Amino acid sequence: MDVVNPERCDTTSVAEWLIGGGRSSPEAGGVLAELCQRLVACGVPLWRVAVLVRTLHPDVVGRRFMWQVGREIEVYTAPYEVVETPEFRNSPFARVLRTGVAIRRRLADQDCALDFPILTDLRAEGVTDYLATPLVFTDDSIHIATWSTRQPGGFTDAQLAGLEAVITPFTRVAEVLALQRTAINLLQTYVGHKAGERILHGQIRRGHTEAIHAAIWLSDMRGFTASADRLPLEMLIDLLNRYFDCQVPAILGAGGEVLKFMGDGLLAIFPIDGGDAGPVCERAFAAALDARDRIAALAAPAGLAGVDGIRFGLALHVGQVLYGNIGGGNRLDFTCIGPAVNLAARMEKVAGKLGRTIVASGDFAVHCRDALEPIGDFEVAGFSAPQTVFGLREPGVSSK
Predict the structure, then answer these.
(1) Are residues 330 and 387 in the same domain?
(2) First-residue to last-residue Cα distance in the chain
(3) How far is CA 9 from CA 14, 17, 73, 276, 277, in A?
(4) Domain that holds residue 284
(5) Beta-sheet strands, E only, within 90-248
(6) Which among 45, 58, 61, 72 is placed 20 to 30 Å from 244, CA to CA?
């Protein structure tokens, strides 16, 4: 690190850069890296900086960004379980998030209180001063940044003043980036990754749809109506979550997009970007087998006496769908519709009547000839001609 003048620390240029949005880097990690580099150039002798920003996410409580001299930015995604650990509860992070009050420990002083375990570790690494500051967003939510130095004697008053001068504009930039991240998280959580991207890019007008070619997945839990009548609500929700956990990772891992949960039903598509549907259908079929095996291993709730396990039915089809915004007023749904989706829904009902787990249309089965065989022609509502349904060789199951 360059030698700095402890008596001179003007960070006005850094504050102005932040007030302008810190736009030289579009990513949060890049903004933090450049902020630290600019502060060091202005005379703030930083050694390590960590920023924890909380977020709205079903599995993640927040993200921590770590900058250290001579290293790349580290980004850690913190699950909710982290905040329950003794390490977190006994950390400056937890104290500042709870109280909103800054913490400073001059580790260069021999009589400095080492009231957090991390301070002992930092002193062993040569840290002489440690500052944890709250980042208070406009909604009054509290986030945190920690600043440490190895400079002999710790931060000077001038360096601390220079650092404190950039905290408020840095907080505003962090909030903007956090809001963008939250929007992405929420869209991906509730409408899916690809649909979320389309919405963020401005495809939000009602009726804005696009015809795409895709493999279609439509599944349903067998016996759900009876289960709903026999189970307490909390147990029913837990069952649904575990049931969908058997399908969603398989779908996403195969390049699919979950569009809708309809009670115990699930609608997903596997977009076909090029002209060859074969590889997409093969991935969708592999995901179907994966989901089938996961659900077969799923234990039935204790409240369902006499039920050995959870069963489901799945229809696979491939065709053209209309993909986009459908709804009324200012309440829209980003989904897909069309005859191909209708056929998949009708075929899923056929699967239930036949006691089959997985069925597929002829258009889909042509891409998985070795695994699927015709099981008959069936009349389906809304289609004038009988439809040939393909399926696996498997034991029969009770219909819904």
Answers:
(1) yes
(2) 70
(3) 11, 16, 24, 62, 62
(4) 204-391
(5) 103-105, 129-136, 142-149, 209-221
(6) 61
Q: Distance (Å, rounded) from C-alpha 126 to C-alpha 139?
A: 37
How much is the mean pLDDT over the chain? 88
Looking at residue 38, its amino acid is R
Across 188-221, b (16+ Cβ under 10 Å) vs e yields: beebbebbbebbeeebeeeeebeebbbbbbbbbb
With a cut of 60, say whether residue 5 has pLDDT above it: no
Beta strand pairing status for 312-328 and 358-361?
A: parallel
Encode pLDDT of 227-266 as tens digits.
777 778 888 888 899 999 999 999 999 999 999 998 899 9
The domain that contains 218 carries what CATH number? 3.30.70.1230
Look at the block and give the residue holding tokens 């260069």.
108
Query: Which pTM value belongs to this model?
Result: 0.73
d(CA 14, CA 162): 9
The CA distance from 276 to 266, in Å, is 25
Three-state DSSP class for residue 194: helix
